[in-house]
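Incident log, entry 3
Record: DUF1631 domain-containing protein (765 residues)
Problem: checksum mismatch between cached and fresh output.
Input:
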Amino acid sequence: MGAPGRDASQLMLVREAALPAITLAFTTVLSRFDDVLFDRAATAGASQLLFLDGMRELRRRRQEISDGFSAHLQRSWTAFESGAPLSAEATLSGHRDDGLSLVGEHELESRLAVRQFAMLLLRDFKSVLGRLDLRLGWIGGGLELDADTNPISPEQLGVAIHEAFAGCELAPEVRLVLIKLCERDLHAPIGKIYEKIDDHLAKAGVLPNVSAPRRAAPQRAPSPPPQGMLEDLVEQRHPPGADGADGSQGAPAWAQRFTDRWAQQRGNLQGHPGEVDGGHGGAGGEQGMLLDALHELLRQTRHVREDATSAAQVAVGQQRPLSQREMMSVLSLLQATPSATLRAAIGEDGESLAQRLKSEVLSNATQLGVDPSQARLDPQDEDAIDLVGMLFDVMLDERELEGRSRELIGRLVVPFVKVAMLDRRMFVQKTHPARKLLNSLAEACEGNNGESQAERVLMGKVEEIIERLVAEFNENLAIFLTLEEEFRDFLAQHRRRIEIAERRAAETQRGQEKLEMARARASAELDRRIADATLPQAIAEFLRQPWQHHLTLALLREGEEGASVAEALTLADGLLDEVAEARRKIVGKPWLQAWQPALGRVFASVGVHGDGAARAVDALHDTLQSIAESRPELERALPELPQVVLPVPPASDTASVEVTASVEDDNFDNADADRFRRMEIGIWLDFIDKDGKAQAGKLSWISPISQRLLFVNRRGVRFCVASPEELAVMVRLGRLRPHVDDGAFDSAMQGVIDRLDPRGSTTVH
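Fresh output:
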């Protein structure tokens, strides 16, 4: 086919094939939902009545729900046919009438649920949707469609589902169940509809050779990768510390850097990739080579790290190494009842956990009838203690773990030494359940001071998981898999709450910016009219208080072009014209008669109604009359008005980053500012405070009003709002850098390698 052009006949055929079929699929599954709710009620316990009420509401408003679903699809298709496709995300987010209102938590949960519905269908029907984007765009006149703008995409279906149930009186948990049922029951029929439409278009000759999908990101178009000082910014869609979901068994990022460096220094290692286990768990190939290199590095650096009294420096003589069984027994004793000195070492920044742990192992061997003076550690066991000890040293030093969080993470040291002795692959296998559990627990603890109920619940779950691990872990590694799966499920729910907090932060920021804009505009309009004017007291007070407040609210509710805004501006100009006429001694005029309705609305906006508003208008009238007649004694002050204060900006979180540097042409790189303008939502950066401590922040929202960027912390709480220029200044001052985090375990291992081999350090931190 040639160049794309609008094909009205195909548009009509696809519309007739798609919209009724999708609506029928929705109506069909909807008809079964009341029965499902009835069944749920039987097992819902205290929520039984909510499900029964939901069942009745569904039966009563079934047609209305179906019509609401269909209406959105019709709007979406009509917008597509007109050449201006509807954005599903913009429609779902919506602009509220009251710019200061925040979306309720239940509304946010509903939006998140339909987004999850869309994500599932986008994933499962990626190929056919990619072809439909191209083919529908072609018959629509060369439009570039993606998941957000395709009129029948899963995202549009998600919005249609949200709209369908929006008017129903349903308990939040019932509404979420209904959306999940849509996710389950619409999956197959919608997929068949997509295939049918795609097949029809292909047979009609619309891009018949299209096969590879070309899908854009659902939320934002991908931005060019940043260069320069921020060239290694990468897209990170998950919170720091979370493992990827690709199931890769490969070595972590630090391992490649380490092995490359080690291979250059120790060329002979490249010829020995085989397995060297010594009875402590196997790892062959590249992982085996990496483990051998780690052991060699530990051996070479031991004399630097240890003093003459350490366990490794005691003359071996006739000493025998502790057997693995003896080691496990001693470690189990320490796991169940850690000594006071070991607990103290966990709480201190200076003492080496590895050294303390080795001393504790040898001294506690007496409980097994072993004479410490006649025993020593096996070299590979000592390496395991060294690696785990240094791993936790780095983690406790470099991560935001304080108080209870530090204590809980520290309790994992002994269990992880046991894991290292049983299965050395933990150090090199990214999907090892022990390291995945550690990553999740560290993520939950980092920066968690128990300030909110959600944080306290999360810490309670962390404590429960660690208590179970300490109590139940003997030598069966399966417990790590069990606890990791349980905690991962719990974290998924917690992250859902974080997502809601993020959206609330964005809503708050948007409302605040609209408020700031409205205030600035109202103030500018006031200054433009009375800045250099000398006005009677009543007139000046009216303009500076009720009128300015009324104008600000009108701007918030209706925007710059709203009818109430125009009326308020006209009122101010008319009032000033009447002051000018009064000063020209025009006598006998019925002052303010034409402005009575508008004046009434201004006073009503500040809570003055009826007789109170009439007295206030009379005061303005008498003031104008006194000017016209040159009788100052007739002038009257406005009656006392209620104190009306516009909402104040939200209080900054205690962890907020202060952006205080001035933005001048010579103190930032314009190229950096441009990169921040193109930065994609979801990217994490490290913000550095004056003490050099880093806090990770996720770009959560970009203001369409001011172009400022909103960053949230791991709890979803706003902690930095800055312009691209201010962020570029922070880069220049060394207070901002790309966030690199492969998870707590890998980040700590990179720190271990850098401490062992500082000359070859490549750490990005």
